[in-house]
Amino acid sequence: MKLDSWESLINYNVSAEQSMPRTPEPSAVTDQLDSVNDYNQVMATNMTVNYSVVLDIIYRSRQNQASERALDLCSGPGHLTTCLSKYLNYKNVIGVDFSQPMVDIANQNSKKLGLNNQVNFHKADVTDLKKFMGQSFDLVSFANSAHHFSNIKDVQNVLTSAERMVSKQGLVVLFDLARLKNKVATDAFVELAGKDFLDRKMNAMYEDFKNSMH
Predict the structure, then answer these.
(1) For residues 41 and 109, what is the distance between their CA atoms, to the nearest angstrom?
(2) Cα 114 to chain center, whole Å?
(3) N or C: which end of the chain has fewer CB within 10 A?
(4) What is the pLDDT of residues 41-59, one digit of tens each?
(5) How do residues 143-192 score in pLDDT, each as one tens digit?
(6) Which helix (H) or strand (E) holds 95?
(7) Angle, vertex CA 122, rays to CA 116 and CA 126, nearest 5
(8) 94: which residues sit within 8 A by CB, 6+ positions away?
(9) Can you tell me the distance from the alpha carbon of 44 to that of 48, in angstroms, rounded to the nearest whole number?
(10) Containing H/E element for 150?
């Protein structure tokens, strides 16, 4: 079967047997400058759909709950983080990432959007969030990042910490990639979805995306 369309890929994946093993990411931290620069351009790609879904989930889930303070874990170049302020009106947003180049470019993006008084970024290890433990957040988001971790225990530690830091009526939102059924489906998905990156000469982003899907 030739999986050259979304329809053919979806139909194939639904009926296929689950046989895709997990291949750990080459690195849990994205700090190579070519990768950082490519990640900074994703709002011009089909990745905007991903961010839209996360924002919609938060919007629908919070109902009439407070939206004062938010903590975005593994914030990368800060696109989702700034959207929390710009579109969902969180007044004080902190983004955390272990990559210093990501933190630097995220703070630049916040300043360009005129949000640097509301949105700030810090270098920190999200598996050790003691510096934020005394604070209370209305939202803790952890999007598109869990698959970078080498083991599930680290993900559990992050979520346990997030639960301790969120307010009683607050939200913890985890959103991440789903593994497809087998290598045939995965390769087809990478080719279809990754074409946008290749067309834009975002080769580092394409390689990172391919690694993540595997």
Answers:
(1) 11
(2) 22
(3) N
(4) 999 999 999 999 999 999 9
(5) 999 999 988 999 999 999 999 999 988 999 999 988 899 999 999 999 99
(6) strand 92-97
(7) 135
(8) 69, 70, 71, 72, 119, 120, 121, 122, 132
(9) 7
(10) none
